[in-house]
Amino acid sequence: xxxxxxxxxxxxxxxxxxxxxxxxxxxDTASATPPADSAAVPPATPQYRPAYHFTPAAHWMNDPNGxxxxxxxxxxxFQHYPKGMTWGPMHWGHATSPxxxxxxxxxxxxxxxxxxxxxxxxxxxxxxxxxxxGKNAMVAIFTHHDPKGEKAGTNTYQNQSLAYSLDGGxxxxxxxxxxxxxxxxxxxxxDPKVSWHEATKQWVMTLATLDRITFYASPNLKDxxxxxxxxxxxxxxxxxxxxxxxxxxxxNGKTHWVLIVNLNPGGPNGGSATQYFVGQxxxxxxxxxxxxxxxxxxxPDEYAGVTWDNTGNRRLFMGWMSNWEYANEVPTSPWRSAxxxxxxxxxxxxxxxxxxxxxPAAELRNIAGQATTLQNVTAKEPxxxxxxxxxxxxxxxxTLNTQQLQDFELVLGNAAGEELVLGYDKTAKQYxxxxxxxxxxxFSAKFKGRATAPRLSTAAGTELTLYxxxxxxxxxxxxGLTVMTSIFFPTQPLTTAKLRSASGxxxxxxxxxxxTTKAAGEAPTVGAR
Length: 529
Fold this sequence. Notes:
Blueprint: H1 7-15, H2 26-32, E1 59-70, E2 73-81, E3 91-97, E4 104-110, E5 117-126, E6 137-145, H3 147-151, E7 158-165, E8 173-174, E9 189-197, E10 202-209, E11 212-218, E12 225-230, E13 240-251, E14 254-264, E15 273-281, E16 286-288, E17 294-297, E18 303-307, E19 316-320, E20 335-336, E21 343-350, E22 353-360, E23 372-379, E24 383-384, H4 386-389, E25 396-402, E26 408-413, E27 419-425, E28 430-437, E29 450-454, E30 462-469, E31 472-477, E32 482-487, E33 496-500, E34 505-514
Parallel strand pairs: 1-20
Antiparallel strand pairs: 1-2, 2-3, 3-4, 5-6, 6-7, 7-8, 9-10, 10-11, 11-12, 13-14, 14-15, 15-16, 15-17, 18-19, 19-21, 21-22, 23-34, 24-33, 25-30, 25-34, 26-27, 26-33, 27-28, 28-29, 30-31, 31-32
């Protein structure tokens, strides 16, 4: 959504924008989109193209936007610059999927216009035609970011606008009277996440406003009234608050509300990260259970995560798999960035504290091959599991179950001597991912080697689930109570697996499952390689 560091790069392009700010047809494209970047495209890196994480076919991508489920299809919109591999004038890219795993990239949904770039936002299905665009219209609510106003030093250069689709997201029309929520004078005023609040029969907008969240309400998506503010002195404030989300979840028959607030910088392992609060929302005010700072993902590479709309009782989450500390420099080409796997959210109580849990969505079974399972694997001295796991693919799921968690290291390596090390430090009570020797890292001094996450569970044993793709790993510990995401860039695929433990550990079950997005008789999709 934002990245004003690149403002000067893009200003010239916006100056030529069409004066028509209400449509997003191809007629606008030539005037609204600046010339292609002059920088040469680096050599292609197909070895880093994910098998089952969404990436655009080419060019820059960051935050997921407008995620909505409609008539059997998951729609993913995303921050996209289609003329370069680094951040630039933001568009809404678009992809669709039957299962959030196998993606088909679609034409760009929203282009910049005379009101500015198309920054982050959300989308809803207006089943009751409250906005008057049509029954079951798909309505996008997004931030218009005016780079001219930003350069001029104003505090009103971000405003909220609408676009709507009457054909299931294929084509979009911008509302003629945009913006629908004008900036009252707050420098960072963006990323509207809108949902229907049934108890009060109104739309509620959760908006990032510099160092806090501001809630607004509307009967029709067009006329908005301020409800309340939250968070000025609560939670982590190492950077600006961005990309919020608000939704209910049930625990032991009681409804709690979860407020997600993405933060950049200030994450637990540096740079961007996703924090959350658990509390109550009465249709006007959010009241947290306490002031404890909690993180949805402790790894260095999950950011801007929000949830899908219109998915019934399921709360499904996806984030951007990168970090603003080095996102513009990662060694992939001709695209930059991927999304995380889809995750299903829940709540769990541990030591009297209510935590958000995150588990791989059940739809990932659609890409699972035949698992190889080992029983009662004991390690103290290093043991090589490569041959026993029966699959040399780097794109796989590993599941480790132990009745007594001890310190251990799982080492994935290659013939070049590169190693990705994951495991648990019992003394520190921390899970960790160490990518310091896992391949290319000289592109940024901030591409830190070792990331850690606290173990929140007090159970004796655990189940640890790891999803590996060409250049990423996502770790789910204690049934999703602790989550970590990390990218890495080996010069060769990591196809060997070793296990070691200083004190000794036994995994009652250890399984490896190859993953691919190509089902039997199915052609590969575009955008998810």
